[in-house]
């Protein structure tokens, strides 16, 4: 076979490639919308990433120029509320339909106070009822862990003791809720 010149071989290769592409064109036309959508989403995500990177760099640059506020003006806390006379608000949350304070709210308020975890102001040395020899030394979680073993009279006796001695809102709230749960369980057992 005679040697065919290089430009002619390239032209023949181009013709074969064009014919192959034309045969595959219907399949590519079907895939075209998916491909275009995918590429558009990729471009959109890249743009979003670049914009976010620019915003982060801008925040870093601006934060070095300006000192942040100690407490933002929009941040308000319950203990910051002041009534019309300039006194701090001390209203207790009440249960709907009653005048009694909500025991959950009392416990949450007590736990959020300045006491560190596990430390409560309780008198030392007193013997408490309900089978607790060292009740005044126990933390809230320790008492909570033992409540399920107590009967209703023991719980009521323990609540009365707590109210007479330390009257800690977190303990009073926990005992009040436990007594209500025991009474409700006894009431539903009687109704069956």
From TrEMBL:
<feature type="domain" description="DUF8129">
    <location>
        <begin position="140"/>
        <end position="183"/>
    </location>
</feature>
<dbReference type="Pfam" id="PF26450">
    <property type="entry name" value="DUF8129"/>
</dbReference>
<feature type="compositionally biased region" description="Basic and acidic residues">
    <location>
        <begin position="106"/>
        <end position="118"/>
    </location>
</feature>
<dbReference type="InterPro" id="IPR058442">
    <property type="entry name" value="DUF8129"/>
</dbReference>
<dbReference type="InterPro" id="IPR047728">
    <property type="entry name" value="LipDrop-assoc"/>
</dbReference>
<feature type="region of interest" description="Disordered">
    <location>
        <begin position="63"/>
        <end position="127"/>
    </location>
</feature>
<protein>
    <recommendedName>
        <fullName>DUF8129 domain-containing protein</fullName>
    </recommendedName>
</protein>
<feature type="compositionally biased region" description="Polar residues">
    <location>
        <begin position="88"/>
        <end position="97"/>
    </location>
</feature>
């Amino acid at each position: 076979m005679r040697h065919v010149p290089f430009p002619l071989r390239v032209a023949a290769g181009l013709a074969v490639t064009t014919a192959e592409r034309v045969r595959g064109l219907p399949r590519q036309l079907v895939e075209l919308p998916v491909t275009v959508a995918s590429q558009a989403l990729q471009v959109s995500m890249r743009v979003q990433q670049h914009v976010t990177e620019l915003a982060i760099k801008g925040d870093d640059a601006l934060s070095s120029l300006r000192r942040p506020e100690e407490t933002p003006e929009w941040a308000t806390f319950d203990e910051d509320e002041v009534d019309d006379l300039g006194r701090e608000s001390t209203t207790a949350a009440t249960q709907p339909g009653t005048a009694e304070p909500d025991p959950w709210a009392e416990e949450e308020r007590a736990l959020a106070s300045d006491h560190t975890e596990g430390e409560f102001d309780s008198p030392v040395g007193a013997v408490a009822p309900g089978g607790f020899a060292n009740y005044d030394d126990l933390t809230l979680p320790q008492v909570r862990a033992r409540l399920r073993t107590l009967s209703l009279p023991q719980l009521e006796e323990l609540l009365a003791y707590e109210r007479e001695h330390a009257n800690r809102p977190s303990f009073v709230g926990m005992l009040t809720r436990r007594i209500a749960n025991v009474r409700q369980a006894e009431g539903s057992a009687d109704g069956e």
